[in-house]
Amino acid sequence: MHLQPTAFAPRLGLAPPKRSGGGYILVLALVFLGIFFTIATAYLSFITTSTRSAQYDVASAQALALAEAGVDEAVYQLNQNASYAGETGTPLGAGTFTLVVENIDSNTKRVTATGFVPNSQNPIATKIIKANIGLNNSIISFHYGIQAGNGGFTLNNTSSITGNVFSSGPVIGSNTNMILGSVVSSGATGLVYGVHATSSVYARTIGEASQATIIDKDAYYVTKTNTTVTGTSYPNSPDQPSVSLPITDAQINEWETIAASGGTITSCNAQGNYEITTSISLGPKKIACNLVIKSSSAVLMVTGPLWVTGNITTQTGPTIRIDPALGSQNVAIIADNPTNQSGSGIITIGQTTVFQGSGSTGSFVFLISQNNSAENGGSTVAIGMGQGSSALVAYASHGLLTLSQSVGVKAATGYKIVLSQSANVVYDTGLQSTVFQSGPGGSWVFIPGTYGITR
């Protein structure tokens, strides 16, 4: 019989055989279990961290959106109330925003918008946007070298126009004064004669028996007398409709408000004048008396709108210049006495007075008179200019504007306009889109290039 050694080994005093590797397997199992728990713990930590990071990223994006919404809110509120100064803890979506609005100048405000998620007391994320908000530029178009109201337009001596002419009243020349452009005299009383127009003429009546009229292109009329037309004649043409003058009283009032926001000068002498005898920078500013610029060496650097509640007079050739910092913007210098518009608000420009823009293309000084004598049948001159030159636009929508001698302006607009001697108006194409600092109804808008994000 064959005996199984393993079964009788204890009885025979023999040791059982060893099971090789059993302990090592247990150790390895424990090692792998430890590795597993370590990896699992790390993975869970990663998942938790990633979740928190994702939550922060979402909250951060929400906070940024809230801050951006705050800037939009500031723009909206400023357009409802220009004195709006901000708000705190406004709830929106997943969080709140806070706004602080600070004045930089009369046309610019600094907005700090802070977005919090979920709130400012215990925020997960916070974003801050700082931006400037400004009044949008008022763009006013001048399409004519000369535009006259119902008082009409008269050329005397050798005066001339380089540009188009529009008048709600008659356009009358003498000795075929040159108009290098088209001429329109609107309405049923439209009348043009005594001029040499290099383009077309539109009027109910063209020509007058004692004054020759020359038209190099076409003529549109009902009646034509003593007129030479090189182009085509169109009898029985309809009357041209009237066109409003480009700057309204509301716009001028807005510039006066801006000027007054810079403070009021009341240091007037016994004659009721604020005199400038040396170079000075000025504006925006209201001057509560007459303004007299006297010295030939004086330079008035205009840094904003000026409102003079009396008359404006320049003597002995001073220079009036727009601050280069204003770029292509234009600045209005206004003479307006609301309590005496028929006898005050008169602008008299002496010989050799020089007007200069900022140095940028399209920058002009606008001289504006609100004198209304001519509109009411009077003869007071609202703006009178002798010898002078430059980047100047003369505007007197209610008054009489006279240009004489060798004066030259870029454009002239008035209720009634008279040119004499060798006065010349040279229309500048930049006036088709003339930019001012602000205008009525001008809205507050975000200024590009001023946007900054923190946090």
Compose a concise summary of this entry.
With 455 residues, this protein is α/β, with parallel strands linked by helices. The protein contains 3 helices and 40 strands.
Low-confidence stretches: 1-12
Structural class: alpha/beta
Number of strands: 40
What's the N-to-C terminus distance? 93 Å
What percent of residues adopt helix (DSSP H or I)? Answer: 10-25%
Shape: elongated
Our count of helices gives 3
Q: Please outline the major beta sheet.
A: 27 strands, parallel
Strand content: 35-45%
Q: Give the rounded overall mean pLDDT.
A: 85
- Radius of gyration, whole Å: 40 Å
Q: What is the secondary structure topology, with strand pairs?
A:
Elements: H1 5-8, H2 22-80, E1 86-92, E2 95-105, E3 108-117, E4 125-135, E5 138-140, E6 146-155, E7 160-162, E8 165-167, E9 171-180, E10 183-185, E11 191-197, E12 201-202, E13 205-206, E14 213-215, E15 219-220, E16 223-224, E17 227-229, E18 233-234, H3 249-261, E19 264-265, E20 273-276, E21 280-282, E22 285-287, E23 290-293, E24 299-302, E25 306-308, E26 312-314, E27 319-322, E28 331-335, E29 347-349, E30 353-356, E31 365-369, E32 381-385, E33 388-390, E34 392-403, E35 408-409, E36 411-419, E37 424-426, E38 434-436, E39 444-446, E40 452-454
Parallel strand pairs: 6-8, 6-9, 6-36, 7-9, 7-37, 8-10, 9-11, 10-12, 11-13, 11-14, 12-15, 13-16, 14-17, 15-18, 19-22, 20-23, 21-24, 22-25, 23-26, 24-27, 25-28, 26-29, 27-30, 28-31, 29-32, 30-33, 31-34, 32-34, 34-36, 35-37
Antiparallel strand pairs: 1-2, 2-3, 3-4, 4-39, 4-40, 5-38
